[in-house]
Amino acid sequence: MAAGRAVGHADPAHRRHREAHPRRRRGGSEAGRRRDPRHRRRGRPNAAELHGPVPGDAGEGVRGRPARHRNRRARHRVGPDARGRFPPVTWLWFVIGILLTFGGLFLLSLKSLLYICQPNQVLIFSGTSRRIGDRRVGYRILKGGMGWRRPFIERVDSLDLTNMIIELSAQGAYAKGGVPLNVQGVANVKIASHEPVLNNAIERFLGKTRTEIMAIAKATLEGSLRGVLATMTPEEINSDRNLLDERIVQEVEQDMTSLGLIVDTLKIQNITDDVRYLDSIGRIRNAQLLSSARVAEATARADAIVRAAENREQEMQAKIQAETTVSKADAEKRLREAQTRMSALVAEERAAVAALVAQARADLDVQRARIEQVRRRLEADVVAPAQAECETLEQQAAAAVAPIVEEGKAKAEALKKLASSWAAAGDQARQIFLLQKLEPIIRQLTDSIAETRIERVTVIDSRATGTGGSATNPARLLALSEQIKEVFGIDLVEKLQNIGQRPVAQRAQEEGS
Questions:
Q1: DSSP characters for 307-371?
Q2: What range does the domain containing 488 cover?
Q3: What is the CATH number of the domain that holds 204?
Q4: What is the CA radius of gyration of the chain?
């Protein structure tokens, strides 16, 4: 039944029936619309279509299936059909295969034209010309990197720039003086990598093997070695090999540059001779060395003795110096201790002095306070009353001085008036003034004479003659006393009598007492 249903669904009549009576689907008016047969999916092939027709079927399929459905698988077969035509997919794969083949051939051709140059080699592309300086060459050079060869017109060769170790040997090479020497050495040589020396190497060694290049370089170096040996004595060659190496390099430099080679290093390894010349030099040198050694030994022994004595002397000096240093250190120690003690004593004394100073300052402050107290007490008890009394006395003095001042002013006024009167009196004013002043003077004089004890009065005339003197003339004396009495009112005779009586009375009183 299942197989029958599957065949029935694949039947064209059933398909036409379904297309004529489409079924509506739920949910929309467009669901049942008739669809375009181009939008329908292809029906799933059944087992008969996948595995081919059943044996025994003549023209119909299972249950009346048309024969054309049995051939549907034939359209998916690879290869030509009954008419001999290929499907489009076959043609596509054929074109892709051809393109891949040509692409591979193209890449292989490109690889054959691409050359990669290592850092230790040089590639020479021959065939195209270029100018170098004032000449034209038919090649171009690639030193490291990548380059393309022009097809059909260029050829590529290479030169190795790595180091070549060449062993040198010069047998029986005559040195200066005719001594044959055997010299072995080693040189490190390489092809130059810079132009124009590289151009010389290209022109001379392109196409040659490394062995051939080393043979040419060895022959050149050995020839230069023999030439240099001929200019040096065996002693110089054996004693200064660095000089020999430098001369060989200088000698061979021009020749190697012409060949396009560079000598990196050259070292002489061994020098011998068949006539034992160097051995003789060695024996002489050994004898000299032995003699020098004996002399050196004797000198060394003498030096050892001298040095031993010097060492003993230095030891004694060092011992003395050490003892001196110890003594100095001990003295310095004692000095430092004394200084320390002195500093301590000084510090103690300073502390005591500072304490005394502080005590004195404190006492001084106390005394100052006491002085201030006494000063204030004196000011209160003495100074203030004294100032008050002084002010009182000043006021009293001012009061007492006022009459004196007024009296002085009155006297001054009187003197002014006297001066004016004197000026008005003229020449007689002086005599009048003297007479006025003479009276108090005589009164004072007589009063003072009254106190004087006079026992006897003697008048002596000062003149030589005794006739004309005024002192001895009684008449004149009386006249003078009268004039004094009239002018001044003083009786000289009475005064003299009183003077004579007073001493007698006083004497009587003294005797009575």
A1: HHHHHHHHHHHHHHHHHHHHHHHHHHHHHHHHHHHHHHHHHHHHHHHHHHHHHHHHHHHHHHHHH
A2: 430-458+473-512
A3: 3.30.479.30
A4: 85
What contacts 260, CB < 8 A, 6 or more positions away? 191, 192, 197, 198, 199, 200, 201, 202, 203, 204, 205
The amino acid present at 123, given as its one-letter code, is L
Q: Report if residue 101 sits inside a domain.
A: no
Q: pLDDT in tens for each of the 513 residues of the chain?
A: 334 444 444 456 656 666 655 555 544 444 444 444 444 445 455 544 444 444 444 444 444 444 444 454 444 454 555 455 656 777 788 888 889 988 888 888 777 788 888 888 888 888 877 777 777 887 888 888 888 888 888 888 888 888 999 998 888 888 887 888 888 899 999 998 888 888 888 888 888 889 999 999 999 998 888 888 888 888 888 888 888 888 888 888 888 888 889 898 888 888 888 777 777 776 666 677 777 887 888 888 888 888 888 888 888 888 888 888 888 888 888 888 887 888 788 888 888 888 888 888 888 888 888 888 888 887 788 777 888 888 888 888 888 878 888 888 888 888 788 778 777 776 667 767 776 777 777 777 666 666 666 555 555 555 544 444 444 566 666 676 777 776 666 676 676 666 555 555 555 555 555
Query: What whole-number distance in Å separates Cα of residue 195 and Cα of residue 178?
Result: 42
* Domain-located, residue 107: no
Q: Which amino acid is at 97?
A: G
How far is Cα of residue 352 from the mean position of the Cα atoms in its chain? 54
Nearest 5°: the CA angle 416, 418, 423 is 95
Q: Cis ω on the peptide bond leading into residue 151 (within 30° of 0)?
A: no
Residues near 180 by Cβ (< 8 Å), separated by ≥ 6?
172, 173, 174, 273, 274, 275
Structure tokens at 507: 């004497």
In a domain, 487, yes or no: yes
Looking at 256, 275, 294, the residue that finishes a domain is: 275
Same domain, yes or no, for 69 and 166?
no
Any domain includes 72: yes
The CA distances from residue 489 to 25, 295, 505, in Å, are 199, 158, 26
